[in-house]
Design goal:
This protein is an alpha+beta fold. Helices cover about 45% and strands about 25% of the residues.
Length: about 180
């Protein structure tokens, strides 16, 4: 992960020269990197689009924006990625005693999970030899977060990489991502 990305998630200038902020960011980056137990999983499914309905692996997802994103794709990659529970513990422990550190951990973890997703996309592109569309997750625009349940079912995320979905549709560990990516092959 890059310091500039963490500073971006902290909503501060990416070129700040404040030594205290930089030291806090560097500490958070190192500790999140150590705590992260990264796990990823992806599967490739046949994909079709009809109106605002996208069918992936036999499951129907309703979203005009997702349909636009996947229009013309015959296959879609569905993936899950997580940093693991130790990162949540790190953030929660700091939140009780040092809110600035907790915020730095949050920002570092956000940068780290994005890095994990970007690396996974590169791995998928390389192994499949295809161009990928932009990833799209439940909760984006008009893809209802409730659709997350279907995605979890397709991938068996709880069983395979330990991501659970609460009754309120929050993923645990919290630094987890799920997404669709259309393939252009």
């Amino acid at each position: 992960m890059k310091r500039e990305d963490v500073l971006h998630y902290l909503r501060t200038a990416s070129k700040t020269e404040d030594e205290k902020i930089l030291a806090l960011v560097d500490r958070a980056m190192a500790e999140v990197e150590t705590a992260a137990a990264t796990k990823t999983l992806y599967r490739i499914f046949d994909c079709s689009v009809s109106g605002d309905t996208v069918t992936v692996g036999g499951a129907e997802f309703h979203s005009t924006r997702l349909a636009e994103n996947l229009n013309g794709c015959k296959r879609a990659v569905v993936f899950g990625a997580t940093l693991g529970v130790a990162v949540d513990r790190l953030i929660n422990a700091a939140a009780a005693t040092d809110i600035a550190l907790a915020m730095a951990y949050q920002a570092a973890a956000a940068a780290k999970i994005e890095e994990v997703c970007d690396n996974l996309e590169e791995e998928i592109k390389s192994s499949l030899g295809v161009t990928l569309r932009t990833r799209y997750s439940p909760g984006y625009f008009d893809l209802d977060i409730k659709e997350q349940k279907k995605l979890f079912s397709l991938l068996e995320l709880t069983k395979r990489i330990g991501i659970t979905l609460t009754d309120t549709l929050e993923m645990l560990p919290t630094k987890s991502v799920t997404a669709f990516i259309g393939t252009e092959d």
